[in-house]
Automatic annotation (TrEMBL):
Alphabetically ordered keywords of this record: Aminoacyl-tRNA synthetase, ATP-binding, Ligase, Metal-binding, Nucleotide-binding, Protein biosynthesis, Zinc
Taxonomic placement: Eukaryota, Metazoa, Ecdysozoa, Arthropoda, Hexapoda
Name of the encoding gene: LOC115884552
Protein name per Swiss-Prot or TrEMBL: cysteine--tRNA ligase
Function of the molecule: In addition to its role as an aminoacyl-tRNA synthetase, has also cysteine persulfide synthase activity. Produces reactive persulfide species such as cysteine persulfide (CysSSH) from substrate cysteine and mediate direct incorporation of CysSSH into proteins during translations, resulting in protein persulfides and polysulfides. CysSSHs behave as potent antioxidants and cellular protectants. Mitochondrial cysteine-specific aminoacyl-tRNA synthetase that catalyzes the ATP-dependent ligation of cysteine to tRNA(Cys).
Gene Ontology MF terms in the entry: ATP binding; cysteine-tRNA ligase activity; metal ion binding
GO cellular component, one term: cytoplasm
Reaction(s) the record says it catalyses: 2 L-cysteine = S-sulfanyl-L-cysteine + L-alanine; S-sulfanyl-L-cysteine + tRNA(Cys) + ATP = (S)-sulfanyl-L-cysteinyl-tRNA(Cys) + AMP + diphosphate; S-sulfanyl-L-cysteine + L-cysteine = S-disulfanyl-L-cysteine + L-alanine; tRNA(Cys) + L-cysteine + ATP = L-cysteinyl-tRNA(Cys) + AMP + diphosphate
Length: 522
């Protein structure tokens, strides 16, 4: 019995020590910034809960996004990440009125670029330039503009070397057995592990050249004379992945950044290592105040979409039979932090819901022109407007809850559609009620514009204007022929008018007849 009690006591003691170790490693303190307190709460991966979004300076907000390694074409997984971040940026800038200054890096020297160079017998710079150009075109295709600042790794090698030299001088970096330079996690950051969870991947244990498995490379010595490299105090080589973002972001924004963003796969080890070496470099305990991570996009019944897994769909292919609006709307219908299970069914759902909003806006335009006569309920409209404004604000303040916004708009559009369709068409609408309908239409349009969907703001080119004039002439001509057919009860003429209408619909021009008047929309 004594032996059993001793055994239980020892097991209990070991468990307590294990729990203490876990608490010590993972119970990190987030330092709440001082500055301008916005009404927003954002999920904080350090505290594992929503925290007040406080920016250092009310006049501007600093935002850094991890850009691509340009060794291959981007896929829709990348597009989903950047669209989601673009939507958050639009919300912050347009809805909350914050002045965002955005920066993104381009990794144009890396193992994967070098490998592609070897495989294709092409200079690594040509590969990087080709795929970077393609990347910006892809972003433009899905409605994303370039960030304010773009920094490329190869343009700042001396700066990165100076960053590493300071870490070495401070004793938090060392030269390994292979002459590469490594960051010493045990000395460089007392809060290492604050971004990762207990279930995250363990550090690499395969490298025998460094002191500890968690240590990571700051400068990689070249493996052969043919490998692209740059001179440094430690020999010919190139920067490690993590040090690139730390040095470049520090060059732009200094020792503290409001927001640092990227995909959830970057949280550990990339962002963890960035935070560790940057805190060490700047001598502080918090380099980034808010980390924003987007969920993966993956194919149905599959893992995440990845170039290495060869299960990708290019952005060009994905948008062959879908518009960028549909893809952006798909991204808005799920929370930015959650995964997206990409499928044709999900795209169809997004397309159909977006069509409901488009049809509602077109119907409002037709009512405004007097083509549709309705009587509107003043009380219902007032309640819908007040409810929409209040609930949209709550949702956007709650960690940018865009799916809740979409759900709310859908419910209220359905409510108004029902009211319009069951109204007494014999009554002429009242002007005092009609302006309320326009007020709600404006809410729908302005909210969808936060997702990058603008039904009203398209700038027509000269060709588009010409096409519009031609369509207008054709629809009016058809309308006049149709009136003759109705007056004379000429079935053949009416069939021809129906044929013109159906053929225009196939070309994306929606023609509607309202008694003796016809209207059209794209």
């Amino acid at each position: 019995m004594l032996v059993v009690n001793m055994f239980n006591k020892n097991v209990k003691c070991l468990l307590n020590l294990y729990k203490l170790k876990l608490n010590k490693r993972f119970n990190h303190t987030w330092i709440q910034p001082e500055g301008y307190r916005t009404p927003i709460k954002v999920y904080n991966c350090v505290t594992r809960q929503n925290e007040p979004f406080i920016v250092k300076n009310k006049n501007f907000v600093t935002w850094y996004t991890c850009g691509p390694t340009v060794y291959d074409s981007s896929h829709i997984g990348h597009a989903a990440c950047y669209v989601r971040l673009d939507i958050i940026q639009k919300i912050l800038k347009t809805y909350f009125g914050l002045n965002l200054v955005t920066c993104m890096n381009i990794t144009d020297i890396d193992d994967k670029i070098i490998q592609k160079s070897i495989e294709t017998k092409t200079h690594y710079k040509e590969i990087a330039e080709k795929y970077e150009k393609e990347f910006w075109q892809d972003l433009k295709t899905v409605g994303i503009s370039k960030p304010d600042i773009v920094v490329r790794v190869t343009e700042y090698i001396p700066l990165i070397i100076d960053f590493i030299k300071k870490l070495e001088l401070d004793g938090t970096a060392y030269v390994g057995k292979d002459n590469s330079v490594y960051f010493d996690v045990s000395k460089g950051c007392k809060h290492y592990g604050k971004l990762q969870t207990i279930t995250d991947s363990l550090p690499d244990k395969s490298n025998l050249f460094k002191r500890a498995p968690a240590d990571f490379a700051l400068w990689k010595i070249r493996k052969s004379e043919t490998e692209p490299s740059y001179p440094s105090p430690w020999g010919q080589g190139r920067p490690g992945w993590h040090i690139e973002c730390s040095s470049l972001a520090s060059m732009i924004f200094g020792n503290n950044i409001d927001v640092h963003a990227g995909g959830i796969d970057l949280r550990f080890p990339h962002h963890e290592n960035e935070e560790a070496q940057s805190c060490s470099f700047h001598g502080n305990n918090q380099w980034v105040n808010y980390w924003i991570h987007t969920g993966h996009l993956h194919l149905k019944d599959s893992v995440k979409m990845s170039k290495s897994l060869k299960n990708t769909i290019s952005i060009k292919d994905a948008l062959e039979d879908r518009t960028s609006d549909v893809f952006r709307f798909l991204c808005a219908t799920s929370h930015y932090s959650q995964p997206i299970e990409y499928s044709d069914e999900l795209l169809d759902t997004a397309a159909n819901l977006l069509k409901i909003f488009k049809n509602f806006i077109n119907m409002c335009d037709e009512i405004e022109k007097g083509l549709i006569k309705v009587s509107l309920d003043n009380t219902i409209l007032n309640n819908v407007i007040a409810h929409s404004i209040c609930e949209i604000d709550k949702a956007l303040c709650d960690n940018f809850n865009t799916p809740r916004v979409v759900q709310l708009l859908s419910q209220n559009v359905t409510k108004i559609n029902t009211m319009i369709h069951v109204s007494d068409k014999s009554q002429v609408y009242l002007d005092k009620n009609f302006h309320l309908l326009l007020a709600f239409k404006n809410i729908v349009c302005s909210t969808l514009s936060l997702f990058g969907i603008d039904f009203k703001g398209d700038i027509q080119t000269a060709n588009e204007t010409h096409s519009t004039d031609v369509i207008e002439l054709l629809v009016k001509f058809r309308q006049n022929i149709r009136l003759i057919g109705l007056e004379n009860k000429n079935v053949e003429l009416l069939k021809l008018c129906d044929s013109v209408r159906d053929n225009l619909n196939k070309q994306g021009v929606m023609v509607k007849d309202h008694g003796n008047v016809s209207s059209w929309s794209m």
